[in-house]
Amino acid sequence: MSDALYVYGVIESEDLDVEIDGVNGADRAYTVGYQSLSAVVSDIDTVEPERSDENVKRHDEVLQTILEHDGGRTIVPMSFGMGFKNQRTLKNVLRNARPVFSRTLREIDGMVELGLKVLTKEDADVDPEEIGAEADDRFDRISVNVVENELFSDRLVINRSYLVERADREAFNEAVGEFEDAHEELLVQYTGPWAPYNFVDIEITAQR
């Protein structure tokens, strides 16, 4: 096996070593540090892992594990496929991108992403604008930010990602439950917590 590294995300400087199924059959995730930053990585035998359903699932599972590990971590998630040929190359990237990583970690400190999809049941007659306005009233007050995602189905009324303080997760959970109870004509799909993919904007090119 080569000394290539696969990177899941970046946290504040910390030594972590977690046994977990990772991308391309990796059995652990650990950190490689540079000054105030630590990249969460796995050893891998290629810098270009296949974008299979299994690998994408493992990528997300590692991020979720670190997000919730030992009380929780703030993590800047990397998009799938970030392979680096060795630690030196990775540390060069961390050095060059340190200002933007540090700023982003401050901006999302103590926050997680929660997903909410709302669909109409078969033959249900609803007013999408009214449902959207009710969602605004219920959820905007207990979230820091919200992203409107694509409505990829005619039955999909709401497809949103919310950035929520960890301390407000229970309140958000309750608000979702109340919304669901109030609308028997709707199907509510509530997911998370996720690393805040939709609320970070960092472009990093994988190093070959």
Automatic annotation (TrEMBL):
| GO BP terms, alphabetized | gas vesicle organization
Q: What does the UniProt keyword field contain?
A: Gas vesicle
Query: What Pfam families would the database entry show?
Result: GvpL_GvpF
- Which GO cellular component terms are attached? gas vesicle
According to its UniProt record, where is this protein located?
Answer: Gas vesicle
> Its family?
Belongs to the gas vesicle GvpF/GvpL family.
Q: Which PANTHER family match?
A: PROTEIN GVPL 2
The protein depicted here goes by the name Gas vesicle synthesis protein GvpL/GvpF
Organism from which the protein derives: Halalkalicoccus paucihalophilus
Provide the taxonomic classification.
Archaea, Methanobacteriati, Methanobacteriota, Stenosarchaea group, Halobacteria
